[in-house]
């Protein structure tokens, strides 16, 4: 009993330590709002802040609406009907997630600008000169389009997963009451899917708020670009922290709105005999309409930008492929692997402790782990560098005591970048591990304890082998997100350290979009393979 208590205390201490890693940066950003403002902040507040808020809210609102319409409609068609290429499109429609929005922005701008293939074809083949404003994608509307076509898979995937687990009797009863497919969709499916839809759209909104690449490339003033310019342009960390704090309050406001929209309604089955929805075979014009819609979205969101990148890569690969480029791949895979491994390990410790020691205190742990994902990368970067500057200050102050040259170890190392990744993406790893624990249950753990195994031995001998699928899924999801991540890496990467994402952004920012193509393709291919493996694991576990 004494041994068990001691082991639980160790789990508690480790969990508390890791949770505090997320709380401290949030606390630092929050209190900065109440410090005395300087002249830069006064100028930002009087002349610029309104524009930041307006642009951010416009993009967030219209992207949320557009991704809802596209994602939910695709989920409905894939779940309810059989049509040509349905089995491929079922997972193919998730592939746009492999293309980071900023890379999609480079591709579409290159496609639509004056020297792009569309305008060149119109001029050379048909002698048509077009108004440039019609093809200008570097606007608020263009940014909304980019975010929509590359982020709708969040809504599609979560809604489809929800609908596939529903009983076919829901649809059958609606039809018996006289509703056609159109009415059933709006009167039945939308209401019961509200929680899944709102939750997935919230993920989209958080991704938009986190973005730096698209809005920076398009020259749109949002919070992310403002934080970066205030920090690097004005060299004003205090004002950057205030902007980060303002952005945090905007995120909190959006999360409150999400809770209100979700409401308290819950839908559950009144019987244990649940027959999943069986897709219906479409015929005639309906079949080709649904196919054209689904394949058209897939073409716009994946095939077109990917082919454009391949065309550019073929023009530039000879001068891009070098030892330095291989180093970029190595850096990207290394930092993503290390951070993802640490996140999975921390998630296992926190999830195991909250499972073994139920209570309000442990419930708070699970809530705190999701905080990092709610905060945009620019805000996290500001908080992390502030903390590491303080820590480096303490290390430097010890130089007088121990007689060594003052050094700034932490802020110039990968430790700072990996720490920021852990804060930002811990929620993804934790959610995967927590769902794995819920699926496994506690019966095997209790049986192991009855046989005399300690909590630590049970964790390694029983729990870990049963959680292989959840661990692999969590690792893959975090790995892909870190591989594509731009704001944190741009802000916090050490000197002379670059990744595929930051190098692609630098090329594009220097108007060398063709050179950015190969790095972008490598990101997409690695992400696409990981997404495919992830869904293979899910299919294996559900079968």
What gross morphology would you assign? globular
| Secondary-structure-derived class | mainly alpha
Would you list the SSEs in sequence order as H and E? HHEHHHHHHHHHHEHHHHHHHHHHHHH
Straight-line distance between termini: 40 Å
What does the radius of gyration come to?
25 Å
The tally of strands reads 2
Q: Quick check: average pLDDT?
A: 82
Spatial sequence of strands, sheet with the most strands: 1-2
Low-confidence stretches: 268-272
What percentage of the residues does DSSP assign to strands (E)? under 5%
Number of helices: 25
Specify the biggest β-sheet.
2 strands, parallel
**Multimeric organization:** single chain
For the structure shown, list the relevant keywords.
543 residues; two-stranded parallel sheet
Description:
Helices cover 79% and strands 1% of the residues. By secondary structure, it is mostly helical. Strands 1-2 form a two-stranded parallel sheet. The model is unreliable at 268-272 (pLDDT under 50).
